[in-house]
Structures are given as structure tokens and as C-alpha cells.
Amino acid sequence: MLITYENREKLNTFFLKTKLSTNNNGDNKNKEAKINQIIAYLEIIHSLLRKYSLKRNLTLIDCGAGNCYLSFLTYYFYQTIDQRKVTIYCIDNNQRLMNNNRVLANQLGFQNMFFQSCDILDFSIARQPQIVYSLHACDQATDKTLYLGVKHNAANILSVSCCQHSMKKQLKKHPCSGITKYNVFKDKFTYMIGDSLRALLMESAGYQANIIEFVSSRYTDKNVMLRATKSNPNKILKAKEEYQQLSQLFNIRPILEGYLSKN
Ligand SMILES: C[S@@+](CC[C@H](N)C(=O)[O-])C[C@H]1O[C@@H](n2cnc3c(N)ncnc32)[C@H](O)[C@@H]1O
Fold first, then answer.
1. Cβ–ligand 1 contact at 67 (below 6 Å)
2. Separation of 81 CA from ligand 1 center, angstroms?
3. pLDDT along the chain (263 residues), means of 10
4. CA dist., res. 173 & res. 75, Å (int)
5. What's the CATH number for 5-163+207-230?
């Protein structure tokens, strides 16, 4: 396990500084759930980064970063525990949040964290990132994350989707209406089909894609991660066929399809 008991003690102090935990009981339950999510996410980030030389400065991009809890933890972990050089770019279209995060990063001495207030699609850097990731980026922001990763030729792309409104709206005429007439199943169905379509698009773009539960559903019901790693492109044709079949069966086309077709 990445976070040992002793490390967890250190982290508690760190979480107080990032306001992810407080000394009073208030909304600590939600914050505890978030802490468990970001620790589990960091475990996956680390499983991808530990193969790189410690001498290398690694580049990460967090899309729809919000309060940047995940990226603050990641930066802290590499700076003080694993002692690896990382540069993290955090992107969010909420300018106020990005300004607050910048102030906090300065206070913490996190010099290689950068905060950009813009749409994910408008962000660009001139080097290849090791990981582009998002955690609960809203609806099409997940598609934008995946596209940004492909556009930058990222070695790895991770996304955990949040609401899937735009795909739920498309799910109208299909052979499983006896299931999706029940709203709770319609949501689950949209998640399954939406993320499968995105995974197939990633495979069609030359990535090896996988869908996993990155943390227990005790901490969030949105616990499904799409993990894509640049790989050899011999499965592209099959993925394209599977994508077309699934997309036609349910009449759903994630906006990612359009972004990738421009690439
Ligand atoms: C649900 S919050 C998640 C924040 C954070 N990743 C977390 O897990 O705590 C989603 C964030 O995505 C940002 N966002 C949504 N669409 C975006 C877009 N197209 N470009 C940049 N940021 C976006 C929102 O401003 C919001 O801060």
C-alpha cells in the first residue's frame, strides 16, 4: 500500500492545510470520502509513474481540477514522500477557484504547480505529459480531458466521469427500453454505455483502455475510472467496429467522437 500508517499521520496535517479536513466535526464525513477517493486515485497515478527514472521531471495535467485536492496531494506525495520531480498543470474554467489554488500553492511552497483558468479544450503545452487526468469533471469535460490527452500524445490518460447529461439525453430509441424506463437504471445504463464508448474511442486512437472501480462505492457511487495507456495500434480496427456497433445500437455518440475526428 502506498500510504502507510506513518505517511497517513503526515497527511492528516497536510489535509488540514488544504482545508480537506478540519478539526471540528462539521462536514468531515464528506471530506473523509474525498480523502479516500484521492488517495486511491494517487495509488493509480503512482502505479504509472514509478517506472520513470527519479531524475526525470514528470509532467501531469489535471482537468476540471476544482479545488485541486487530488493534485495538491499528488504534488505533496512526490515532493515529500517519494521525492520525485513533478510539474502539475491544473485547469478549471472557474477563475475564482484557480486564484485561490494559486495562493495556497504559494503558501505551501509548491513552485511547480500551475493554475490555468480556461476551458479544457483551450489548454496547451509544448511537451508530452506522462498523465492527463480528471476526477469528476462534469459531463463533456470528461470527453475534453480524454481529447486533451490524445492531442498531447500523453502516455497515460485517466478519467472518472461525473454526470452524463448529454449522453443520457441521447438515449431514447434502443432495444433495452424495458430497463431504462426505470430512471435509476437509465442512469447506470448511461454510465456503462457512455464510458464503454469512450473507452472504445480511446482504443481507436491507439490507446489500450481499461475500465476499473478505482475506489470502493462506499466513498462515491461515481467510482468508475477509464484508464488509457498509449500502446501499439494493432487493435484499432476492431475497436472502431465495436464502437460503431455499440453507438448505433443505443443511438449515443459522445462528443469525444467529434473532437477526435478533427485530430
Ligand atoms: C465536480 S467538480 C470536480 C473538481 C475536482 N476534480 C474534484 O474532484 O474535487 C468539476 C469541475 O470541473 C470544472 N469544469 C467543468 N467543465 C469544464 C471545462 N469545460 N473546462 C474547465 N473546467 C471545467 C468545474 O468548474 C468544476 O470545478
1. yes
2. 28
3. 74 86 64 92 96 95 97 95 95 98 96 98 97 96 98 98 91 91 93 96 97 96 97 88 96 96 82
4. 46
5. 3.40.50.150
